[in-house]
Structure formats: C-alpha cells, structure tokens
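My main concern about presentation is that the manuscript never shows what a single data entry looks like. Each protein is reduced to its one-letter sequence and a matching series of backbone shape codes. For the editor and my fellow referees, an illustration may be useful. For illustration, here is how one protein appears when written out as sequence plus structure tokens:
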Amino acid sequence: MSAGKTKDTKDPKDPKGARDAKGQKDAKGGSGDARAPKEARQPAPPREGKQPRPEGKDPPAQKEQKERKPERPAPVPRLQILYRETLVKQLMEQFSYKSAMQVPRIEKIVLNMGVGEAVADKKIMDHAVSDMTKIAGQKPLVTLSRKSIATYKIRSGYPIGCKVTLRGRRMYEFLDRLVNIAMPRIRDFRGISARAFDGQGNYNMGVKEQIIFPEIEYDKIDAIRGMNITIATTAKSDNEAKALLSAFRFPFRN
C-alpha cells in the first residue's frame, strides 16, 4: 500500500519529478548523460611543480658519474710544453722565421687498421676495435667498403677496417708513448725511414704488431695485427717536417 501511495502522490506532469527520475535512471547505467550537475562538480586541484628527487633515491649510475668527476683538469702533456717553450724558438732560428705562427706544428695523428678477415667473422672487427681503443684512448670509427669485389668476397657496405683521429692532448700523449715506449719495443729496430714523407709535410709509417704498445696484453689478443700511422703537420716542405719530427726525437736511420 505504501508503494502505491507514493506512486499516486507524484504528479506525472511535474517536470521536476521527471528530471529526478531521469537522473536516477542515468545513474543506474542508462543511456543519458551520467555526469554530475555543475553544483556537485569540484574544481580540479592546481598542478604543482615537479618535486626534486631526494638525494638517497638517485640511481647508482648517476652516483658513479658524480664520483668519477676529476677534482682538477688533466695535466698538459710534456711534449706540448716542450714544443711551446723550446722547439718553437729552435725552429725559428734554424729556418729564419719572422713569426712564431710560421713554425710548423703537428696538426693530427691518424691511426688506420685494415681488417679484411672481418668479412667472414664479425667478432674479429670487435677485437680490432677494442685493441685500437686501448692504444689511442679514443673509440675508433668502423670503415665500410665502398664497392663490391667478388674476388675478395666483399660487398658494398661491409666493415673492413677501423680508424681514429687524434688531436690536442691525446695526440701529444700518443706521440710520447710511440717514440719513447713503443718504438724501442719493435723487434730488430734500427730506426725508421726518412723517405716516408709525401712531399707536403706529412709522414707515414707502418707497424706490423700491435703488441709493441704497453696497453695491449699479449695473453688477451686473438691475432697479431698491424696498422698505419699518419702524422699530419703544417710544414710546407719535407725538410721542415723532418726537422720538426727530429726535434721530437724521432729515431730516423740517417
């Protein structure tokens, strides 16, 4: 009886009652708009700025990088100091230069290693890159073949070697290790040729074994590999370039 009375008391023509019934229907999963009325909506909270991470939650990789930062810059290589303080004056007197800017200097050193065996096995290239990285202290660039050669089973785009260009401090450090440590360890060494200049002041020399460098451990290499070393200078003639390298104590035969 109570349910019937409540139904009779509602006026079917009352629009407010119809709206209430419609809202109840939509709330139960009807097809109407289920959003709450504007009065019931709450404004969205304002966006807050990103809070900084606490110091204790930094990833371990970032902690290692922070710890590895040197407290002071690396020292200047001794050959670079020798060139600025002694060799510049010496060469100016020898060739009668009017300005110190005319004195030839070493511009860059390029190491190039050909790895033709990498066509059959790509792991050989990884070992060659690892050896050159240890020698130069800088990751080399892998060189690709420019054209296909059926005789050597090489296709265009195959990795066949690696090279690295040294400048600045790394160049002087490598030059110091090459002259004072690596060359004396060459088997039956009697000096390097003085006729390996290209006519434009650049010098080329070859190394048959990479184990002459102290960074390479003989027990951990997979094969003996050689490399080509090019020393590019700003000298205009071979005589000036030879005088520059001789001042750095290059052991020429003659």
Q: What stands out?
A: DSSP finds seven helices and five strands in the chain.
